[in-house]
Every structure is written in C-alpha cells, then in structure tokens.
Amino acid sequence: MSPVPKLILQRLVLGVVTLFLVSALIFVGIELQPGDLAEQILGQSATPDTLAAWRAELGLDLPPHVRYLNWLGGVMQGDLGNSLASRRPVADLLSQRLANTMFLAGYAAVISVPVAVVLGLLAALWRNGIFDRGVNVGALSAISMPEFFVAYVLILVFSIQLGWFPTLARIDEAQSLGDALYRCFLPALTLMLVVVAHMMRMTRAAVINVLASPYIEMARLKGVPRWRIILRHALPNAAAPIINVVALNLAYLIVGVVVVEAVFSYPGMGQLLVDAVSSRDLPVVQAVGLFFAATYVTLNVLADILSILSNPRLRRG
Amino acid sequence: MTVTTTLKSAPPTAWFGMAVVALTIVVALGAPWIAPYAETEIVGAQFQPWSAAHPLGTDNLGRDMLSRMIFGARNTVGLAMLTTGMAFAAGSVLGMLAALRGGWTDQLLSRAIDVVMAVPPLILALMMLAIVGASIPNMVAVIAFIYIAPVYRLARAAAMNVVRLDFIEAARLRGEGTLWLMRREVLPNIASTLIAEFGLRFCFVFLFIAALSFLGIGIQPPTADWGSMVKDNATLITFGDVTPLIPAGAIALLTVAINFIVDWMLHRASGLKT
To answer: Per the UniProt record, which residue ranges are transmembrane (chain B) (predicted)?
Structure first.
C-alpha cells in the first residue's frame, strides 16, 4: 500500500475508535454510579415493585453490554433515546438546536477566516514593524482572555452604550436571514475574536517560513514588488499549513460556542449540553457530547488528511 | 548572568506580568487580613452601587463584591495551582514510566492518551461532570485527569531523549529499579522543560476552571470565585454597570500577565534577541 492511503486510513480508524471509546466511557461512568436511573427518577420512597417495573420499561434489567449495544444500534438509526427531564425523544430536542449551532459557527467562520489570513499576511509583509507588533500583542491578549469577558465587553459597548445590537441572541424560524444575521452578530464577533488570534499567528509564521527560502530571495533580486512576492510566491506555498490551521480552528469554534451560547442565551447545542449537565440528564449529555466529539474528531482528521495530501514528499511516496 | 541583570534585561511586558502575578499572590495569601468583610457574609441589600462602605458595591445576595474578589483570588488561583500540580505530578510520572519501560506499557499509555487528546477538553469535562456530579473535588479531579494527557506527551518526549544516554544504561546495569531511575536520573534532566511548560498549562487550567464556574458547573456557591461571580451578577451589565466585568477582567489580566512572562522566558531560552 502506498503511504498516503495508509496514513489516511490510520487517521480514520483512530477517529472512529476514539468515538467508540468516548461513547463507552459515558456508559461505564453511569454503571459505576451507586443506584440506577430508576432510583434517581422515582426517588427513595419508591417500592421495589415500581422500581422493577421502571427498570423493565427503561431496559435497565438487561446486562450492561447488551444495553450499550442496544443504545449504539439506536444511535445508528437516529434514535438517541428519551430525555430524563422532559421525557421527549432526544432527537427532537437536538434537530433545531443543531441547525442553530451550525449557523452560528458557520457565521463566525465566514468572517474570521478571511480576516485572519489578511492580518497574518500583512503582519508577515511588515514584520517586526509597528503593525506586526501591535497585532501580535493584540493576538496574545485575545488568546489569554476568557470568552465570556470578550462577550460582556462587546455587549456593554455595542448594545448598552451604543445600542446597535440586541443583548440576547434569540432566534426562531420565523425570522428572515438578514434579521438572524443581525441578531447573531455579537456572538459571532466574540467567536471571531477568539479564533482569529491563533489563525493569524499561524498564517504569519507559515508565510515568514516560506519567505526565508531561496526562490523568494531570487524573486526579490529580480526586482519583483513585495506584495507580489507575498501573493504569488509565498502564499500558494504556505497554503498547506494555513488550511491545516483553519480546519483545526473550525474544530475549536464548534467547542467555543458552548460558553458564547450561555452568555447570549442562544438556543444552541452548547446551551442544551450545559443545562443537561446541571440537571444530570444523561441521555441528552451523551447525545450532545457525542455530537461535539464527533464534529471535533472529524475536523481534526480532515486537517490531518489535508496536511498529508499537501505534503509532496508523502504524496509521491 | 545573575538574577538582577536578567531581570534588568526584561522587556516592559514581562515586568508588567511579574507585577500582576506578585500582586495576585500577595492578595491570595493575605485574603482574610486584606478583605473588609468575610467571604460569605451578607452585609447589605442586593446589588448596591459603589460606595465608601462597599467600594465595588454588593452582589446578587448582598455580599461585599470587593471581599469576594479578594477571596476569589485565593480560591480560583489556588484551585488552578492544585489542579495543574496534580496533572503535572501524574503526567510526568506516567511519561517517564512509558519512556523507561517502553514496550507495551508505552503503547498502552500512549494510545489511551491519544484518545483523551482527541476529544475537546471542555466537552470531555462536561460529560464527566454529568456522571460524577458538579462539586469542587470532582471538578479538580476531572480537569487534572484531562490535563495529564499533554503533560504526559511532553514528559515522554523529553524523557525519551534522556533514556538513550549512557548514564541511564550504566544505572540499569548497576541494577537500579525504575523508580530510582525516574527520581534520580530522568527527572532532574527533564525538570527545566516541565517547569517552562507549567506556566502555560496553568493558564489553560485557570481559564478552564473559570469557564466551568461561569457555566455553573465548576466551583459551587457559596465559595467565592471569579467565574461564577461574573455569571451571578451578569444582569447588572444590561443596566450599564461594569461591576461584573471586574472579576472577568481579573481573569483576563492574570492570564495575559502569565503569558507575557512565559513569552519572555521562551524568547530567552531560544536565544533570540528582542
């Protein structure tokens, strides 16, 4: 087998194994609990008979490995079980929130990727100048700040003092796209500020790395203008690491929504997960947690595959 | 170079960082003597504005904000130190063990760590806390467990370079046990790498604890902590009051400060001139 398909296959297998282990981890954790779900739902005053009836209804009387396989089989068919708190199917709870979270993360990604690449290029173009230093200090500070701090500062400035945007990002299906984009601007901006710093630093590093190579020296000696060196010679060769870091940051974005959704009361997956953890609604935690893990693992595997494919030494094998 | 000349060569950002860290340590250690009121004492009405008696007003339950900020420094920073310390202790021991033993010990540990690293930390922490329930000891244990992974990788990589050297071979031939090798031969040689990483990991853990507490599943009331103080008083922001931003700003300030110091140290270690 040539090295590229083999490497890609390895990454894919690792990703799938990870997801299985994560799903099993939750199951084992629940098994280790004293008492079971029937006792938790019915409380301590329940009689042994009602407990037994509940266990049979929830399938808790079956051995653990059978229940795990049952649950896994259900997940494959889109049946995620029922929420303990609301008794509704988890899949119903998820559908709308999933779309909302994807909308917010996508919105943030669409603004942040171009901004990060342009800032990184400019910092590389004027490296060690005032612009570069300013952007660097800004990026270091942005990485260090908790998301909720950034979010509340934005709320204070843009929605309380200037009154331009709403403080809460409540959206529903009745709204037009423009309205939804307007309402979600502050959460998207918060996410952008958090991810841009990292992407920009990596873009700068990748471009500067390429600028050190002999063919750039050659181009410079030929008298090619600086912006043209950057755009035509450096950027295409720095594309691979940049694409890799973009994919990694999109993975981060999916996770970053948890805190941002909590600040803006945005009806997304993150908010659902936090509520479910507080009320220990384990079927919901399991489903949402697995969704986040799956998205994160997929984007990471994608980033790995892209960097393998963009490496000519590996491609030719 | 002596300590004083090293410090004199530090850039202003590093000086700023060191000043902030020193101030935080003094406040955290001296909390009971500095704070005007007790940590959970209810001293007045809810959400009082700033006044001479309560320089930062009172919080959602009528407790003095300034006192809670001061105790919060002790709790949030102290717990982050404890958690980072636990992760480093376990991670470096496991990393050195993998490097020294090799074979299936190394394979087993490394693959398990791969799995932990493949899941986003916040999601993993939330799922584990849903299972064990939200409390301070559980939170510390869960975060320490998650941060074993990066420390393990670093310690293993650093120890791998050491275990190939002759003095390890000599000690092995002398018949020294793994524990002795770890403590006397490997640890002193990888300690500087681990210490440099400690500052950076501390920042991550600190932000992590703040985020979990902000979400209401980290440090539980009535313990004062900067993350949950933001959450409890967040409604004030809609009235244009900046008080809830003070604990959030303190978190940001401390992490920025530590990052400035770490950046300067890495710069010096890499031998680059500023």
So the answer is: 12-35, 77-100, 112-132, 198-219, 245-266
